[in-house]
Amino acid sequence: MVFLVVGRLVRVDVGGVILRYYVFGSSSPQILITAGIHGGEATGVYAARRLVEYLGRVESIEGSIVVVPVVNVLGFYARTRWCPLDMVDMNRVFPDGAGSVVTRSIVKKIWELASSSDYVLDLHCAGLDSYQYILSLYREFPRVREFVEDIAWDTVVESTGLRGQLFVEANHQGIPAAIIETGGGSGYYVEEWGEKLFETVSSTLVNLGFINGEEKKISKKYYGRLVGVQSSYEGFFKPSIRPGVDVVVGDVLGLVDGKPVESSTSGRLISLSSWMYIYSGGLVGRVAPRS
Ligand SMILES: [Zn+2]
């Protein structure tokens, strides 16, 4: 007979809105997995939902796994990055919160869950045409680098360390935390990336010892902070290559009204502003420089 781990659905009233999260297991260590802190970043929500379904079918869990599939509840329905009540970016106001009662209550609750966790993994989207990467302060915090080594994905980009972000504030509290950015955004999920992100997170849970399975250790490529590539021309941008490849200075990333836009940086092409009208000086993509 197989005994399944039954996840516990917790509903919390956050200023008249219901925040839902799932708890699997009851002992320590604990990992917090969050998605949809930016409401429009639906692929993270997709992966978190897949994870909830999957964890409901595993036989045993060491420690506990807390999953919040949609942090920014109203932003998710409105398909916006911000909470529509106050236009506050929730991932800039940890640990105290700001703006409306809803935003303050959600930030407070998420911070409470993060503070009692041993790891925090926050799922985001970097745009509809982007490659998946781990964003972390791997240089500044040795324990973050150890944590990142267990995340089952190859590309690691250094964060600017901007304060007020959930993972940055957790790092400063001594809790290893990172973001995984994947393809999607503006209220749309990309199923292919959603499945990859789900696999990345579930394998990471195996690597960290939360669930049984075959460890999937992936050797890493570490990159510096993202650098934007600007267009010198105005018009519609048409990409020539796809994110995920390594480029060198001078490589053509795409055309703006037939004129080439070249990379100003050598490193991994992370995202492109496809299907966009670009003004002169506008951003057509982001490259993570070789570190
Ligand atoms: Zn985000």
What is the CATH topology classification name of the largest domain?
Aminopeptidase
Poorly predicted tracts of residues: none
DSSP strand tally = 18
Strand proportion, as a percent range, falls in 25-35%
Mean pLDDT: 96
Task: Please tell me what the overall shape is.
Answer: globular
The chain-level structural class is alpha/beta
* Total helical segments: 6
What does this protein look like?
By secondary structure, the protein is an alpha/beta fold. It folds into two domains: 214 residues, 3-Layer(aba) Sandwich (Aminopeptidase), CATH 3.40.630.10; 64 residues, RNA polymerase II/Efflux pump adaptor protein, barrel-sandwich hybrid domain (OB fold (Dihydrolipoamide Acetyltransferase, E2P), Beta Barrel), CATH 2.40.50. Helices cover 23% and strands 31% of the residues. It contains six helices and 18 strands. Strands 1, 2, 3, 4, 5, 6, 7, 8, 9 and 10 form a ten-stranded mixed sheet that branches. The protein has a four-stranded antiparallel sheet with strand order 11-18-16-13, with no helix packed on it. Strands 15-14-12-17 form a four-stranded antiparallel sheet, with no helix packed on it. A hairpin with a 2-residue loop joins strand 8 and strand 9. Helix 1 crosses helix 6. The chain is globular and about 60 Å long. The mean pLDDT is 96. The chain binds zinc ion (ZN). The site of zinc ion (ZN) has 3 residues, from loops. The site of zinc ion has 3 residues, from loops.
